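Researcher: Sequence of GAF domain-containing protein follows. Predict its structure.
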Amino acid sequence: MESATRKNKSYATAIFIVGIAVALISVYAIGGNQAWLSYSSLVFMLCLLTGLYSVTAYQQKENISLSAQNDGLEKRLSQFQSQVGKKKETIVDAKETIQVEEFIRKILPESNQQFGSQEKLTEYILTSIAKEFSIAQGLFFTKDASTETFTLQGRYAYFSEDLPHNFKEGEGLSGQVAKDKMVLNISDIPDGYITIVSGLGTGNPNSVMIVPAISQGTTVGVMELASFHTFTPNEVDLFSKITAQLGERIANHSTI
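Model: Prediction complete. Tokens:
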């Protein structure tokens, strides 16, 4: 392509030079004859116009070529940016996967064999979570397959004369979480909804997160976590990614 454009440019230049040469030779040969002078002038003008046309055509081709090159560069740049974006997404996904795996190792035991009951297993999980987050109180309900009822198994820092009521799917907030199989984060807690008791006195939490434990598409447990701080979106997302692991541990322990 570059060779062709050079030929076009050389062709236009040659025509222009030939036109001038023809005009000068004609004037010299005729000795100033008016007719031949007019003829040579006409030839000169035709050659000049042809040369200008060729130069203009060459310039247009150059512009088209540059435009095509720019389009190609923009396309390659777009492809490069897309590849960079995909690599960034891959890195982010890898970091999130590592974060989830580390969290699972911290809160779930390597084996259920060391726990003789679901109560001990669920209390171990709640205690492990409390070490990682500012959890002031925690409850863990598991599902009785024969009655389809969720009953309290594990407790963390829970103090009350009355135990929480059992529930079924769709009953109350915890029952709705069991039905929807989605984490629920509540930051606007009504007064008296939950009271946290310690040696320093009592208080109401600022945030409650209810997490389902899911095994093979079925909710087998529900965990309630109360905190004096507001759970961040990242924390909610992290718990959303471990519902299956929680459910498998609960389901596997029931078969031991």
